[in-house]
Amino acid sequence: MHEELKARIAAAKSKWGDRLTILGHHYQRREIVAFADHVGDSFKLARDAAASDAERIVFCGVYFMGESARILAKPDQRVFMPDIQAGCPMADMADGEDAELAWTRITQANPGRNVVPITYVNSTADVKAFVGARGGIVCTSSNAGKAFDWAMERGDLILFLPDEMLGTNTAIVKGKQHIALWDPHAPEGGVTDAELAKAEVVVWRGYCHVHTLFGLEDIKRAREQHPKATIVVHPECLPAVVDAADANGSTAFIVNLVQETPPGDTIVIGTEINLVRRLAQSFPDRNIVPLSPSVCPNMYKTDLKKLASLLETFDERLEVTVDEAVARDARLALQRMMTL
Q1: Contact 159, 116 (CB under 8 A)
Q2: Please, is 220 exposed, middle or buried when counting C-beta atoms within 10 Å of its C-beta (0-12, 13-18, 19+)?
Q3: Do residues 71 and 338 make contact, with C-beta atoms less than 8 angstroms apart?
Q4: Quick check: 317 and 58 in contact, CB under 8 A?
Q5: Of 98, 131, 202, 209, which residue is least crowded by CB atoms under 10 Å?
Q6: Any domain includes 107
Q7: What digits encode the pLDDT tens for the residues 284-308?
Q8: pTM to 2 decimal places
């Protein structure tokens, strides 16, 4: 069955030629990545989408990634996903209406201060639009530090959403002492005016379950089982886990670290299991071990059958669309990221 599906995908790709480009996120299955024209993390694939001249862009990832590609693509290009229902729970933890409420409260508690919003790329188009309309910027885990620098040059208080962990870990690296937590489900955000007035960074209570699965007990076990290993984790992990690891960084950072590690060495990796397994297959001369098996079920929704069906039919129900009023402001925030 797999061989038949692979043949159908190859035939469809050949038929479309240069009029088609397929983008595949690092967390996709190995067999999907094999058909991608570009493979990378969210930042690289956003750049690839913006640079593409293909008539049709197929994004093998989750929905916020397809939205970003649609926003950055040219007006005459069309963006599709093999599974339009492949969402991101963390992106759904913040919406434009909640962000507006938080903005009103935070700015009222900080008269005279310039608040600059940053949204992780793992966010909905309306949150990106909210940020873009207020002079803010999108970031990925690859460039969160640069986004913080950019924001601090323009203001004295950062609102970071929707990932509490990436926001907190980046703020710590930047030496921020006063980090307030905004909980959209708590009355008044669960924070006092005094705390907001003192804050240098306000982070949103949101998280990626793939990465918050990892705990200190996993680090301890890895140290015991692999005492000479390098432990690297993603900055969406809990701050204590990031602190206990030897290194942390984006998926691109992790891939580069593995590439640069001498053969024979052991690397324990705390991120999505599909990437860890693919790295282990790609670098058999290194001992690559997952910190703990953690899978993103939404990334896993894309399979060969869905990709083959899409490439053969380009069903309009699988096309990614974004309202132009939303796309206009979201594009501002994304383009600011691209120029960092």
Answers
A1: yes
A2: exposed
A3: no
A4: no
A5: 209
A6: yes
A7: 999 999 999 999 999 999 999 999 9
A8: 0.94
Q: Would you say 26 and 41 are in contact if contact means Cβ atoms under 8 Å apart?
A: yes
Q: In 10 A of CB 4, how many CB atoms?
A: 11
- Which CATH number characterizes residue 225's domain? 3.40.50.10800
Handedness of CA 95, 97, 101, 104 (dihedral sign): positive
Q: Give the range of the structural domain holding residue 187, as residue numbers without chain letter.
A: 91-207
3-state secondary structure of 27: coil
Measured CA to CA, the distance from residue 55 to residue 218 in angstroms comes to 46
44-77 tens-digit pLDDT? 898 899 999 999 999 999 999 999 999 999 999 9
How many Å apart are CA 318 and CA 155, to the nearest integer?
40
Question: How would you list the strands of the sheet with 56-60, edge to edge?
Answer: 38-40, 20-25, 56-60, 78-80
Do 83 and 96 belong to one domain? no
Residue that the structure tokens 């593995």 belong to: 258
148 sits in which H/E element: helix 144-154
* One domain, residues 190 and 133: yes
Q: Identify the bridge partners of residue 119 per DSSP, sorted by sequence position.
A: 138, 161
Q: How many domains does the chain have?
A: 3
- In DSSP terms, 161 is beta-bridged to 119
Q: Is residue 53 part of a domain?
A: yes
Q: Are 163 and 229 found together in one domain? A: no
- What's the CA angle centered on 122, arms 119 and 127, to 5 degrees? 50
What does the pLDDT look like over 205-224, one tens digit per residue?
999 999 999 999 999 999 99
Structure tokens at 127: 């949150």
